[in-house]
Sequence to fold (431 residues):
Amino acid sequence: MSVVKFKPKKVGVLFSGGPAPAANAVISAAASSFRRSGSEMLGFLHGYSGLQEFDATSRPLVAGQDYHPFTDQDLQGLRTERGIFIGTSRANPGKKIRGPKDLDDAERTAPLRRVYDGLVSLGVEALVSIGGDDTLKTANFLYEFQKRLPEGTPRVRVVHVPKTIDNDYRGIDFTFGFFTAVDVMAQELLNLRADAKATRGYFVVETMGRKAGWLAYGVAVAGEAHMVVGVEDVADALAVQEDVKDEATGKVTQENRLNLDALAERIVDLIVAREERGKHYGTIVLAEGLAELLPESFLRGVARDEHGHVSLGKIDIGKLIAKIAGERYEARTGKSKKLTGVQLGYESRCSAPHAFDVMLGCQLGVGAYRAIAEEALDGHMVSTAGQLDLRYVPFAELVNPETLKTEVRFIERGSDFHRLARDLETRLPQK
Fold:
């Protein structure tokens, strides 16, 4: 029988960043677990939007506008609902914090102070944060900020649940929503494959996956693509070294960038090799994160979000690569070939979650309750391993202590998963 070590009167939950299937499974499981134990559950609406604007006098938090107290009726059938019951946003109260020293700077931590004060004003004693690596970074900022408060000051325990359809989180095997997103996009890829076969053309499909290639590889395998390229593949012939200047510091470093010429030639090799086998169609999957590895000339002037990330949707790397490869094919063969660039991703983020993602989401939601109430933890991420066995990972194991940044989990080149795609895609002649 479980033993409750800490029973908070009020618990907050918020969701930040892009949507993911099974978000409501996490939210409902956490809310129902705390409510059954006698705690009141508040859902903060649209991430940190209201909290970071809190002011006790001029901008108090308002029920229905900034937060929603959960009721039994809210939880009926919520587990499998599409979307996010409490909404989301990319509001970032830690955007001015670049390193440990900044946590001692009152000006840079002012938004975090407002978040903390807002939580305390409502009597919240624990916060369940749900979001991606940037949201984990913010959760750690809030945790570290409170460690610097005077002794005797109220504390809000912080527990984080990892979320990303990109599946690039350290500390957990698979993130909720990943398999649903893979399936939705794979089904669309199969439709495009049939279209390509009927029209003797090619589709160059860009899938979500900002930093790692998990989603692109999953979609390629399940959707029977003929080639897949993720950010992990920008090496050897597909890489070129480029001097990159940091605008803030003026420091120049050499970085690996995508060799567009080499990628275009590889796609032409694929088309020619398939034509020699009597196959005049195909699908190619690219991870959207390749756009961040484009030569600097392509990235100048591109808008960035609050976390400093390039707005990848503005680049449309699928169309860019399709155009270049089409021109290279015509130059090499003297024939034209229809290559069409397509972006996939947004349609998967709020799709109906599959059973596995619902189960995983529920376990993570219950895990958030158990971390706080049964384990009395603070500054931990909820994780699973094996057959959804719960484990709790300290923020310190996930965050770089010098930069306070989270580290991405890439597909390991040469690993069995990496080789799986290589074994299933079209084999090209060795040069």
